[in-house]
Amino acid sequence: MATPYTSRLPPTRLQITEPLRVIVFGGTGVGKTSFVNDASRSNLHIGHDLESCTKAVQPGPIFSIEGRAIQLFDTPGFDDTTLTDTEILQQIAEFLLNLHARDQQINGILYLHRITDNRMSGASVRALSLFEKICGSQAMRNAVIITNMWSTPRDSQEEARENQLKTEYFHNAIANGAKVARRGGIGPESALAILSLILHCAPITLQLQTEMGIRNLPLDETEAGALVDQNLRKRLERQERERMELEEELEAARGEHDRRAQEQLERFKRDKEVEVQLLRQQLDLLRSASARQHQSFQPPAETGGPHPNGSNSRPGSRPGRGFGWGRRRNQPNA
Q1: Per-residue pLDDT of the chain in tens (334 residues, 90 and over written 9)
Q2: Do 152 and 238 have their domain in common?
Q3: Are residues 95 and 18 both part of a single domain?
Q4: Are residues 134 and 49 in the same domain?
Q5: 216: helix, coil or strand?
Q6: pTM for the complete prediction?
Q7: Are residues 71 and 118 in the same domain?
Q8: E-assigned strands of the chain?
Q9: 207: nearest Cα among 293, 149, 130
Q10: Do residues 236 and 93 share a domain?
């Protein structure tokens, strides 16, 4: 039976209806934007292959399910090819803090994963871990992990893969109350059926909102920020080690007067030095995020004016605060 559906609420309803807000997470190319478009019958731009078109958090239009207003927010993929993990985390953090500042509550979180992936890649593991750190265990009761892009008819290998994902990778989220759902196909019906699972969930505060909005922590001291920092340092250590190995090989080639090997190794070494520099820049960006965001983040005044999603302030919403953008721990000079 199809889920009762109304495409978009008329302007008069938008002014008096506080929508249920659902944040859509996942890696690049897993179908997040398609899910938002199918559910809301909108046309947010969709990327092709592994190149994402979602470079910032995109709000979909407000629509209704079973008479309840709902709005989906499409987030950049954690393994985006043009944005770094640091930049993506900063964008998501600023978006979540804007919601928190305006008392705009979150009712659900979705995480999409391709069932067609033969294995859980390193990028997929990092994306799932970052999702869990952003949201926190308490928010998992409002989460649905969606396996997407199933074959028709069902493929036994995909079903076996689903069982492995549940036991080896999704088990922490499931233990904390997350649901796992298959998206049976494209189109509104499958998307709306999944949204009906969280339609009556009470509002939640995500862990990142608590850390920065209530505990006043800077981004790099949050669990999500610490995870990105840890991943960057591991990658930097590996790249530095490979750079040193190339230097040793280059010295050996010079000693043997092997001109061709020298040219090739020098090219490899230059590429490796660029990678090392980019990773160092990401670490510097993460450490300086609080100061930069303190300058750029402008908390909204309590005017009752329109919000970015098209709705108005609720009575009694508190004015925005700095949320730890400016508080820094003592750090040695670089």
Answers
A1: 444 454 555 544 444 568 999 999 999 889 999 999 999 998 876 654 444 455 789 999 999 998 999 999 999 988 777 888 899 999 999 999 999 999 999 999 999 999 999 899 999 999 999 999 999 999 999 999 999 999 888 889 999 999 999 999 999 999 999 999 999 888 899 999 999 999 999 999 999 999 999 999 999 999 999 999 999 999 999 999 999 999 999 999 999 999 999 999 999 999 999 999 999 999 999 988 755 554 444 444 443 333 444 444 443 344 344 434 434 444 433 3
A2: no
A3: yes
A4: yes
A5: coil
A6: 0.80
A7: yes
A8: 5-6, 20-26, 58-59, 63-65, 68-74, 108-114, 143-148, 179-182
A9: 130
A10: no
In a domain, 310, yes or no: no
Alpha carbon 298 to chain centroid, angstroms: 22
Residue 288 sits in the same domain as residue 264: yes
Are residue 75 and residue 161 in the same domain, yes or no? yes
List CB contacts of 126: < 8 A, sequence separation 6 or more: 78, 79, 85, 231
Residue 32 sits in a domain whose CATH number is 3.40.50.300
